[in-house]
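Work Package 4 report. The design task specified in the project plan requires that, given a folded chain encoded as structure tokens, an amino acid be chosen for each position. We show below one input record used in the internal validation round.
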């Protein structure tokens, strides 16, 4: 494991997001191993359209992050929400953001004693800081099909694509979070790697131990309960599937836990229940009450089809039956997942999952992810970083 090094990570999401992302999991482990880490909350890819119903709530959430200034986590990670201009289409804005970021992050790094940091960027708009922080190594972590995301910001996809290409060109290591992203990449195999998602296995496997009581918020909902946690966006959730299920299986209860955006049509359905975000530590206590874990994503949206949802591995670690929409990332795990390729099949597979009465499938699901832990991923990433550093020193 890396030790005694400095890391500055520009995340694609805020540290404070209720469901830890891959950068959160990895940076925690690097910090525990004795590395100095600064995590930079998302600098965004631009403001959402003024027509977006969530524009003001998103601005409010970001302002709350700004208000936290620089905080230190239990592991000693410094988390900062830097001030930036949320516009990326002009030379003036680009230059202003470069100066703002370098001044703020550079000053913080010096005060925290970081030197020759590994620069880890997971958002293309952070490309402007490459070469500005006296970094020893540049890692570009590609977590999404960035130029296909036209829902959360109004920045020109062509500009996002150019920033993405610049980041790939400048990086010493490129990590891709999903097979579809990795397979479509045009970079050399020596620098590009598939960084699969992982799981805190023991955290989620505790569900199968039977020691958790179902929390009251879930206990109040009748069976059968179909559970989901994570982002709840109108374009992400397959609302037509949920509406079809209401018409044909009105007794099924759909439970969504997480940040809910405006504009969801399924809010009006009496068998759909929304629970605000809960802490990662408490989430297994809620999932204990699920009969089936579901991922009802609209994978016809191009952006969604590149997804590598961490929650699928967490579902599997719980041992509970899992029904998901088709994602290239999880085709290789079809032996332990039920993949609904049509609405009719999705509902049929839920019925099949509800009828499951053997312990063997649950054990198989847990075996499939038991060794794919975040500790193992962090060790593997550390080895690649150290190999790359040695190669740079030799050259």
């Amino acid at each position: 494991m890396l030790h005694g090094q400095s890391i500055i990570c520009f995340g694609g999401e805020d540290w404070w997001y209720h469901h830890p992302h891959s950068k959160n999991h990895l940076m925690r482990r690097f910090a525990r191993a004795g590395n100095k880490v600064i995590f930079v909350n998302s600098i965004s890819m631009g403001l959402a359209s003024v027509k977006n119903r969530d524009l003001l709530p998103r601005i409010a959430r970001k302002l709350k992050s700004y208000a936290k200034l620089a905080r230190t986590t239990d592991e000693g990670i410094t988390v900062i929400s830097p001030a930036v201009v949320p516009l990326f289409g002009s030379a003036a804005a680009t230059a202003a953001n470069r100066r703002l970021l370098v001044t703020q992050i550079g000053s913080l790094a010096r005060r925290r004693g970081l030197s020759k940091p590994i620069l880890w960027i997971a958002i293309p708009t952070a490309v402007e800081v490459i070469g500005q922080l006296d970094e020893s190594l540049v890692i570009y972590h590609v977590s999404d099909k960035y130029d296909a995301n036209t829902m959360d910001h109004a920045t020109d996809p062509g500009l996002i694509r150019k920033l993405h290409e610049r980041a790939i060109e400048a990086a010493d290591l490129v990590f891709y979070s999903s097979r579809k992203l990795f397979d479509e990449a045009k970079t050399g195999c020596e620098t590009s790697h598939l960084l699969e998602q992982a799981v805190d296995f023991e955290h989620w496997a505790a569900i199968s131990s039977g020691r958790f009581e179902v929390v009251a918020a879930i206990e109040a909902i009748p069976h059968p309960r179909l559970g989901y946690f994570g982002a709840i966006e109108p374009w992400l959730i397959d609302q037509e599937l949920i509406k079809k299920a209401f018409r044909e299986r009105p007794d099924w209860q759909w439970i969504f836990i997480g940040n809910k955006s405006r504009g969801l049509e399924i809010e009006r359905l009496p068998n759909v229940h929304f629970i605000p975000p809960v802490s990662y530590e408490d989430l297994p206590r809620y999932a204990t009450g699920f009969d089936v874990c579901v991922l009802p994503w609209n994978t016809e949206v191009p952006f969604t089809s590149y997804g590598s949802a961490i929650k699928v591995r967490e579902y599997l670690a719980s041992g509970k039956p899992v029904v998901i929409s088709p994602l290239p990332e999880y085709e290789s795990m079809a032996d332990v997942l039920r993949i609904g390729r049509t609405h009719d099949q999705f509902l049929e597979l839920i019925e099949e999952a509800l009828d499951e009465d053997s312990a063997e499938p649950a054990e198989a699901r847990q075996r499939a992810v038991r060794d794919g832990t975040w500790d193992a991923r962090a060790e593997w990433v550390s080895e690649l970083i150290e190999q790359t550093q040695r190669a740079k020193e030799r050259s």
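The CA atoms of residues 165 and 302 lie 19 Å apart. Validation will be extended to a larger panel in the next phase.
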